[in-house]
Amino acid sequence: MLKPQSIQHFEFLSNFHDQKPQTVYYVFGPENYLKDIVLSEISKRFKSPGSEEFDSIILHATDTNAAMNTLEQLEMIPFMAKFRLVVLKNFDSMKASDKMLIAEYIQNPVPTSILVLTAEKIDERTKANKMISGKAMKIICRSPYDSAGMLKWLNAETREKEIFMDNDSKELFTRSIELNYQFAANELEKLIIYTKGKESITIDDVIETVGKSRTSKVFDLQNEIGKRNLENSLTILENMITNKESAVYIILMLSRFFLIIWRIKDLQLNNLSNSEIENRYIPDVFFKSKKNYISYASDYKSSTLRKIFSLLLQADIDAKSLNIKDEIILEILIYKICKS
Which residue range(s) make up the domain with 13? Predict the structure, then answer.
């Protein structure tokens, strides 16, 4: 008999309803948000409408006599549903002797009962967990390793909720939040409420609702670079790097900044007055910053801006492909921009 595999939560959810039912599911990891989603999907599949209170129960490992109560529930015949669903939460907090009782049951489980265990982690060194791991379907609910993992989650959420966000907005969102799915879900919900009635979520919506405190440092950096103040720019950059800001995020925001400068420059070259540009053509720039942006555009030549875009592109490629510290890539980038 093949040993049940251990799979990531998203892989499990993608084909769970086409899989043969298992008598034991072991849902573990630090992400309680994901564990709740997995539990919800398991419950949806195995509960029958109207029989929930008879054929399913949630128990906690910290309860008195939790192990014996769990075994009693598992031995009961389902009343209306095909399976009796028993969820035992926080299994890792049980004492060793109680874990062994559950592990021994799992070696010869009742075929009409489904047991779901949840835990923060699995200690494979213990005898009970070794016994369980040989029989249970294990679902890992890990935190995302990086913003790419968070982006994968965001793409799935926006598809399900039928929300449109462009790539820049998604990039900013995933780099403006903690690597925690529960926190991300809360921030996305806040963003949805803020943009209710709009056809799409823009990068400015993300800045206003999610990344406001974080992006304030980026705006400071943009302003100093706009003035070509190398010393102040590097000081702000050092602070951002110390706070573990990523190079890709900073490059993204600087690229957006210089795209606006390029647009203003083009309008100036077409003989539009600064007041007209300020009032009509840069609605995506915060009111208090409009005059500064127009001033920066006046100080940059078109040829210089083309060179800066090349520098930004190369820095983005380096940050995503080379094994070089973000600090080095960004310091070189900012030095070249300020000296251009």
Answer: 6-140
